[in-house]
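User: Hi! I have a protein structure encoded as tokens and I'd like to know what sequence might fold into it. I'm fairly new to this, so please keep things simple.
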């Protein structure tokens, strides 16, 4: 089984492109899509093939259970492989598929179908800091929001599954995730997640201003027939706030937009993104990563006037 990563973040700009061809037929049946996780690389993998699933589990992948139900007809979701890196990539977008193939990716054909009725959205997120497992796909808004809260980029809806978030196709149970200080007081509203029994979910402790999580900052939970509660415990810390100034200038060093000023926490890392300015085209990268900042920062984005 070949596994790969996506190199570069240019893929997500294609999510809105058209070009899916003729309207697909509605489904009459569904099939189970399985989700697996590689604890060594951080990558998730998705397949309807039980033999492929069993093969991966036999070499150390973790079975995360049922990912979603896919229709037997609909819009094609393509599966591609990068022989130079190590991840698979999945997309409903034919233009994105063709661009990847033109850049050396291998076309592995049809992965599954997307529901033309657009019943249950399946979300896509991108980790700009990862070297492998850079994309995640999930039907769970809570998982998507959790990833975005810890630095992943929300790339919107990737494709659609059958049913809705409360479809009782399998037994479900609830996991409640609580956030507490050392005295037992709740310091953030709890997350409540309802999923299929035997599903494995990873919960990451979010950053909370003025606090630092004690112990591991994530917990893997297997949903059982009984509801569960997990806790993240935080200790109070003294937070030093630093200033980040974002400047917008033209190629002649003239300010073309008011400076944005943000307060951030010392020793944390942040991603700063350029904004669109009417009548101007950005020069250079659209984002900067400020790593482990220890002093006030100033970032300048440079634009060229469009004639």
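Assistant: Happy to help. Inverse folding works backwards from shape to sequence: for each of the 307 positions I chose a residue that suits the local structure. Here it is:
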């Amino acid at each position: 089984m070949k596994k790969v990563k996506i190199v570069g973040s240019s893929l997500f700009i294609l999510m809105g492109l058209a070009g899916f061809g003729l309207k697909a037929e509605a489904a009459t049946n569904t099939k189970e899509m399985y989700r697996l996780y590689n604890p060594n690389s951080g990558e998730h993998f998705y397949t309807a093939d039980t033999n492929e699933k069993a093969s991966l589990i036999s070499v150390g992948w973790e079975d995360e259970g049922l990912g979603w139900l896919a229709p037997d007809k609909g819009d094609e979701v393509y599966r591609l492989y990068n022989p130079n890196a190590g991840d698979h990539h999945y997309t409903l977008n034919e233009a994105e598929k063709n661009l990847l193939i033109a850049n050396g990716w291998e076309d592995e054909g049809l992965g599954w179908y997307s529901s033309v009725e657009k019943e249950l959205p399946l979300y896509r997120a991108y980790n700009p800091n990862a070297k492998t497992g850079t994309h995640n796909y999930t039907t769970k808004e809570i998982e998507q929001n959790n990833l975005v809260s810890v630095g992943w980029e929300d790339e919107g809806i990737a494709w659609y599954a059958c049913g809705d978030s409360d479809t009782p196709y399998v037994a479900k149970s609830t996991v409640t995730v609580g956030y507490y200080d050392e005295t037992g007081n709740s310091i953030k509203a709890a997350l409540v997640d309802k999923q299929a029994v035997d599903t494995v979910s990873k919960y990451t402790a979010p950053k909370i201003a003025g606090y630092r999580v004690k112990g591991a900052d994530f917990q893997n939970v297997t949903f059982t027939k009984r509801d569960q509660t997990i806790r993240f415990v935080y200790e109070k810390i003294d937070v030093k706030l630093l200033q980040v100034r974002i400047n917008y200038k033209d190629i002649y060093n003239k300010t073309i937009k008011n400076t944005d000023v943000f307060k951030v926490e010392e020793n944390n890392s942040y991603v700063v993104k350029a904004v669109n300015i009417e009548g101007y085209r950005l020069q250079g990268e659209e984002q900067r990563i400020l790593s482990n900042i220890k002093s006030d920062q100033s970032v300048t984005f440079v634009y060229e006037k469009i004639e």
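A useful reference point when you look it over: Helices lie at 50-58, 94-102, 141-149. Feel free to ask if any position seems puzzling.
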